[in-house]
């Protein structure tokens, strides 16, 4: 299963999330979206999930802390204890043994990131 992890600012719009998703997911069949639980209900997130007709996995912030990632955002490190919310959320949602197939991609407006992980979780 391929999971698209998302990280984004509170000012992100649907176009921000979609741009990061499109960069990361090009040519892939994505089965689910994932992000940190404190982003639940964000209008852009809800709109993207509905547009893509994909389930959304909300990962508790405490589970992100310490998750090893390929890239590092100082903001993610300070807020969540991981280098990339997008990468960490994708890895956790894809299950044990998951691996990144696309490191975080950043939207042109720099308000959203997306990374893909593949794992055996169903």
Automatic annotation (TrEMBL):
Where along the sequence do coiled-coil regions lie? none
Q: Do you know which Pfam families this protein is assigned to?
A: CbiG_C
Where in the numbering of this chain does the CobE/GbiG C-terminal domain appear?
Answer: 2-117
Domain of life of the native organism: Bacteria
Please give the InterPro entries that the UniProt record associates with this protein: CobE/GbiG_C (IPR002750), CobE/GbiG_C_sf (IPR036518)
Gene3D superfamilies reported in the protein's UniProt record: CobE/GbiG C-terminal domain
Protein name (database record): Cobalamin biosynthesis protein
């Amino acid at each position: 299963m391929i999971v698209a992890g998302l990280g984004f600012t509170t000012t992100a719009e649907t176009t921000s999330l979609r741009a990061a998703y499109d960069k990361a997911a090009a040519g892939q069949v994505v089965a689910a979206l994932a992000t940190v639980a404190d982003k639940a209900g964000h209008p852009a997130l809800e709109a993207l999930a509905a547009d893509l007709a994909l389930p959304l996995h909300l990962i508790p912030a405490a589970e992100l802390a310490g998750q090893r990632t390929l890239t590092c955002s100082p903001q993610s490190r300070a807020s969540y204890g991981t280098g990339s919310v997008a990468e960490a959320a994708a890895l956790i949602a894809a299950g044990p043994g998951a691996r990144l197939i696309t490191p975080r991609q950043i939207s042109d407006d720099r308000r959203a990131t997306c990374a893909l992980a593949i794992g055996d979780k169903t």
